[in-house]
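Input sequence (276 aa), recorded before submission:
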Amino acid sequence: MTGATGEVGGRVARRLADAGHSQRLIVRDASRVPALPGAQTSEFGGYADIAGMRSAFQGVSTLLLVSARESEDRVKQHIQAIDAAAAAGVGRVVYLSFIGAAAEATFTFARDHFRTEEHLRASGLAFTFSRQNLYLDLVPLLGGPEAVIRGPAGNGRLAPVLRDDVADALLTMLIEPGHEGAVYELTGAESLTLSELAAEISRYSAQPVTFENETLEQAHASRASYGAPEWEVAGWISTYTAIAAGELDVVTDHVQRLTGHEPVSVREFLSRSTPR
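Predicted structure, token format:
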């Protein structure tokens, strides 16, 4: 698996170890890898390191491919990883994608995931796609230090899902047979507007949080001081416009089907994690 030092990959690696499965953790920096029983560590130079990937993927039956950080050449990196997996004889790739992945998705980064999925479909490798909604873990941080969630989301809704629930579902996809060719959409159990999310955060926080709907012009202006490249700003803003377009208003039972338990709700998560 890749991404073992990240938030989702690290959770999956620990679950695999706890369940007694052998695994190879393919990472850029081996010094950051936790000591896990049954785990080997293979260091490589990232998704641009084609030779390193081919070597690291040798003998791998199932590969968890955690998507690369957002960048202008993200799709190219994913394609190189998939091609390296095919060349190394990997049997199946479980790809960490995003809800609503489509060629014309409003969320620009979801288009990257779609192009990656299409290349994986054409590669001849067996595959499983795990498409997540936005992570519930990030909801308490949406308001930032000013406690105001700003973005052009209107009254659109989303169903955020907890990373622990995603990791539980991925564990099933990885270790159980019968998931070849499957596309799973991992979501929370309920869909809320950003105004409703702000109200829920406020319920459990010492500082009230509000939602401020922005126009596209306001959204660009409020992020101008970050000094980020345009492709990155467009990605940030399109997270909100995708919500407004209804593309994140997806609620499924896939977490429950894969894990045997209901996904953690927004209120349950906030009640135990939001500092007062």
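Checked by second reader. The first helix runs from residue 7 to 18.
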